[in-house]
Amino acid sequence: MSTGQTIVLTGVTRVAGQVEGEALVTSAKLSHLANAIDSQGVVRMDGHPLQGQSYAGKIIVYDTDIFSTGGAWGLIFKVLTTKAGPLALICRRVHPISAGGAVDARIPAVDGLDHDPCQVIRTGDRVRIIAPEPGAEAVVEVFPAVAREGWGGGAGRCRAPAMGVTGKVGKGSPPARTARGGDVAW
Prior knowledge:
It is built from three helices and ten strands; from the N terminus they run βββαβαβαβββββ. The chain has helices spanning 70-81, 96-105, 117-120, and strands spanning 5-15, 17-25, 59-62, 88-91, 109-111, 126-131, 137-143, 156-159, 175-177, 183-185. The longest helix has 12 residues, at 70-81.
């Protein structure tokens, strides 16, 4: 349930798409490998802040990826085969591991947001991603589950207040081609 306020963040589309869903947030790095997140989408990484929680059917917000390129296959498998993958990726920096997986899984991925998504977005918030094409501006609308101090209060849209700006990453750079021909921008 939304509180009536909307927080708007802008960033860079890495993999195009439009989706809306519930956020699951961590400031930690994550891997989509089968031994890190199981086939039901449950995080199994020992000591990870999301250990025991499922990202299935949610928009996962995290720092970036760790471990091997097998994480791309893990992401594809969870989204397309077991249907227990995330709806989209919002990262401080989308790693090429996840970008490749997101292209093949056909889910949006965005980064380079004007504010730290791991601090602005909270678990349980409703999030809408509008990411038109790789390298273009992405819009992330956050519908907080709980009212927030300093966010313009009440109903209506507001830009995120001044805080640690992460900066734009690769904005305006031409997209690179993936092996399957999909575009991904760096």
